[in-house]
Amino acid sequence: FLMERKTHVKINRKEAMLAKLRKSCSCTPKKVKNFIMDFFPVLKWLPKYQCKEYIWGDIMSGLVIGIILVPQAIAYSLLAGLKPIYSLYTSFFANIIYFLMGTSRHVSVGIFSLISLMVGQVVDRELLLAGFDLNDDASSALADSSLQNNSQSNITAFNVTIAGMNTECGKECYAIGIATALTFVAGMYQVLMGIFRLGFVSMYLSESVLDGFATGASLTILTAQVKYLIGIKIPRSQGHGMLVITWINIFRNISQANLCDVITSAICIMVLVTAKELGDRYKHKLKFPLPTELVVIVVATLVSHYGKLNEVYASSVSGAIPTGFIPPKVPHFNLMLRVAVDALPLAIVSFVFTISLSEMCAKKYAYTIQANQEMFAVGFCNIIPSFFHSFATSAALAKTLVKTSTGCQTQVSGVISAMVVLLVLLFLAPLFYSLQKCVLACIIIVSLRGALRKFRDVPARYYVNKVDTLVWIVTTFASALISIEIGLLVGIVFSMLCIIVRTQRPRTALLGQIQDTSFYEDDLEYENLYSVPKVKIFRFEAPLYYANRNYFLKSLYRLTNLDPNLEAARRKKYEKKEKRHLKKGDHTTANGLGIRETSLQLVPKQIDFHALIVDCSSISFLDTTGVNTLKEILKDYKDLNISVLLACCNPSVIDSLTRGSYFGKDFGSMQEMLFYSIHHAVQFAKDQK
């Protein structure tokens, strides 16, 4: 039977686009109100805030996240190559802006180790190109000497002209200038992606690519912190192969390790890991996670201050952290041009991590988010703070999980966290002067446990899907051994190549009938299948297009044990020989047989079927090459008196075949060539002579 297709009304695309444009460009009070409400979701949910139910959970989670944020912000400043005060600014402004613009109730947006690393690598590269010394203690030592001598040596030492900008503010000022320019451009990219609805870009970052990227970056972060752990002074490596070069420099200078830093690092790591393990084991019994990082920082600061570890043992410390806010400053345009390319992967990674965590929380707690608005929120979390000496932000998995586990209900908890950071900014920051950098490195390294544990999951991952495991491995090692930006690009390209290869060489099979049913399956995968006499049923599990055309034909010829082109050529050759013998008057054929027996030789013994059924249920689409391929096998098999029947075609495939004249011009033979199930095609083939 032939089902009748519906007639679809053709839409005038030009008129539809003009109508949509007129609607979007119209301006009414209601539309303006809806735009403002959508752009600032806080105006929707805050008036409906259920204070009695939500307030205590928000306050508790906000305080806990704020307590975690302070030590992490100070620690992650090492990754960004900036002073701790800028990390605190970043954490403060990101929480406030996401409170106003975000649609997720539970995501914690702020400083994130991976983003800090990406910022730090750009900052280090630009500082090196500008002629600054990347040694962490160089600028601080120079600053101390300038203060003692009451001179301006720190300024004049770094008086250089870069990209048309006269840089007279020293290494620290130039570093934060690069970071804010990078952050501003990344935020602009995110806002533009939101305006042009380019959120689909995140679809090309599969879970395997993201996990591999995070794991490779974690190895880079770990490597960058080792020098602080053991207290050696080595130059920061730049460019490709940074991880290998850094480890070579570490082993070359291992003899210069600071014993005080080594002992402090060992104690801190032992305490932090033990506390984390106990927290994971008894997390169901604890109402909120233990503030281990804060305790370690407070104790380590007191020990360093009263033990005078910097003066006596030359242990590197954080140094002076100013209080209050630095006056806002517009990011320099010339610096934006220098970092425009670097800002693109930063913008994509920042958005992808935020949207994936937002969707995870929304699914878990049964509410919806607006992906496009999330892109705007993250974009403005970068644009606005860049005027206030802050750098790029993103949602952070660890803090988001802590936030949800401590009773968070809304983004009011983000405001509470921002108030905790503000308290440190205004009053408590100078107290961290004596904090050793090795303690901050320990906090960073212990926070990488989750990402580094991914190596332990490789066997299970390999068992589930070998291709995804290969993508994860390639992305991980490309991110670690080359660079994190190149690693991300390699991961995306490799994962797409894997998809292409899988469609180029998909599974193919001959099907057999499940006895006493109308269902058919792969006879190599299942036992006790019944082979339909004189009928071959071929399945191709991929779209049929130009890249896999040859594989389709080779698989078909191999499984049916018949190449119609070779068979046709063999028959023509045989017919020529017979004609030559007949002209000579020899009634015996080339094989020594009589003329009557010749016709038997023209039908090869290996052709044991008269109908070929192509199961198209897995063919999602056909291109022009795919249609021509099916027309080719239709003609070739017809020359051998074998009919080709198509079964289970979707409407898209049927339309492609119709437009390609597969069924002829009058479509009269369509019902004898196209069937809506394999069983109908088999029954039709059996009825044929």
UniProtKB/TrEMBL annotation:
GO terms for molecular function: secondary active sulfate transmembrane transporter activity. GO terms for cellular component: apical plasma membrane. Keywords: Cell membrane, Glycoprotein, Membrane, Phosphoprotein, Transmembrane, Transmembrane helix, Transport. The chain crosses the membrane at residues 54-76, 96-119, 173-192, 212-230, 335-355, 376-398, 410-428, 472-501. It is a multi-pass membrane protein. It comes from the Eukaryota. It catalyses: oxalate(out) + 2 chloride(in) = oxalate(in) + 2 chloride(out); oxalate(in) + sulfate(out) = oxalate(out) + sulfate(in); sulfate(out) + 2 chloride(in) = sulfate(in) + 2 chloride(out); bromide(in) + chloride(out) = bromide(out) + chloride(in). PROSITE patterns: SLC26A, STAS. Its main location: membrane. Residues 525-685 form the STAS domain. It holds the Pfam family STAS. It is found in: Apical cell membrane. PANTHER family: SULFATE TRANSPORTER (PTHR11814). Belongs to the SLC26A/SulP transporter (TC 2.A.53) family. This is Sulfate transporter. The lineage of its organism: Eukaryota, Metazoa, Chordata, Craniata, Vertebrata. The gene is Slc26a1.
